Amino acid sequence: MKILHIVPSYKPAYIYGGTIGSVSRLCEGLSNAGYEVTVFTTTANGDTELDVKPGIVHNVDGVDVIYFRRIFKDPFYISPDLSERLKQETGQYDVVHIHSWWNMLVMRAAAICKKQKINYILSPHGMMSDYILNNSKSILKKISFYGFGKSLLKSSVYHATSVAEAGECEKLIPGWKGFTIPNIVWLPAEHIEKKINDRFTIIFLSRIHPKKGIELLLEAISRLQVKPFLRIAGDGDDNYISELKSKTIFFGIENDVEWIGWQNREEKFHVLAQADLFALTSYNENFGNTVIESLYVGTPVLISDVTGLSDFVKENDLGWVCSTVVEDITLKIHEAMQDKMKRKTICKNAPAIVAEHFSEEKLIPEYIRHYRI
Questions:
Q1: Under DSSP, is residue 195 helix (H, G, I), strand (E, B) or coil?
Q2: CA dihedral 359, 360, 365, 369 (to 10 degrees)
Q3: Domain ranges in the chain?
Q4: How many CB atoms lie within 10 A of CB 101?
Q5: Helix %, strand %, coil % for the chain, to 5?
Q6: Could you tell me the mean pLDDT of each successive run of 10 residues in the chain, 373 residues long?
Q7: If DSSP codes are grouped into helix, strand and coil, which group holds residue 68?
Q8: 2-180 and 201-358: same fold?
């Protein structure tokens, strides 16, 4: 089986967060299983371009990747070279799997597949939600969605990473058919030693973005009588990070927060293991790779009920699930701080539960089964 993946950015452009890791891990897993995998992507790397030669095949961890020049930077990702190559070669593949939405590159790719009557799968990676449509500063998303995007999406088969995301897809586009399989997350083979802290420590590790609800977390911590220590790992818009730092001063917790910046793939597991609790109080989160990564090193989680993995966390009692209301977040942090026995049990049991549900060996055959339909 020949499989083509189309994605706006690919590793080593880790600046774009968890999607890069999930898509690359899927491609590598398919390749390791003996399937012929090709990736069409761009040289995008934030405000810069990846230092790769465009238009030729690069072997990236066993996957054939072709990087194409983009003529506009984020968030448009316009690449005439990629579109032209796709028009010429689409029919050579048994499966076309497109990732992301709300940029011209993937919309153009979907339009080409539809015109050539090629069946294609679309993984929105959290882009199909009321939050995305209603919290944008631009009306361009709504115009594109109702103007032509809805038709392109309905012509595809959606891939959702959680039941919650599948519900969002079907709510926005009634009758849209698809399937649900979790992300494949890279997990280290070696054991990561947990750290015992003198002071209760919370870790936030993700892209620093308004949808992540970091303001909620800061205010919740400020309301606690006994303040935990919060470490914030990740990068984002400099102006937004400055706003958040100002809020820590306003809430009087600037000395209770440490900003440690972006962590690479190896570093982040050690950072997660050094915490007593991982927190992700997002307004919208289709999956949450870092939730899995945190649990894998034995760190309990506090996540919002709009996070795709919230049902998994509740069903397996792997942490605390809160609403996006400050009072509830404050209460759940307090509960986590007090319940040392539950944290100890999660630390012991979570790694095996994660391995059972999210192993590559289990998930790759599921992807292949749906590719064959």
A1: coil
A2: 90
A3: 2-180, 201-358
A4: 23
A5: 45, 20, 35
A6: 97 86 95 97 93 97 97 85 96 96 94 95 89 71 83 95 93 94 90 91 95 97 98 94 98 98 90 98 92 97 96 97 98 98 97 92 95 89
A7: strand
A8: yes
Sheet holding 277-280, edge to edge: 257-261, 229-233, 201-205, 277-280, 301-304, 319-322
Beta bridge partners of 39: 5, 65
Task: Note the residue count of the chain.
Answer: 373
2-180 placed in CATH 3.40.50.2000: yes
Question: pTM of the entire structure?
Answer: 0.87
Please report, for residues 114, 139, 289, the alpha-carbon distance to residue 134 in angstroms, rounded to integers and kept in the order given.
27, 9, 24
Contact call for residues 302 and 332 (beta carbons, < 8 A): yes
H or E segment to which residue 2 belongs: strand 2-6
Contact (Cβ atoms closer than 8 angstroms) between residue 186 and residue 265: yes
Superfamily of domain 201-358: Glycogen Phosphorylase B; (3.40.50.2000)
Contact 276, 299 (CB under 8 A): yes
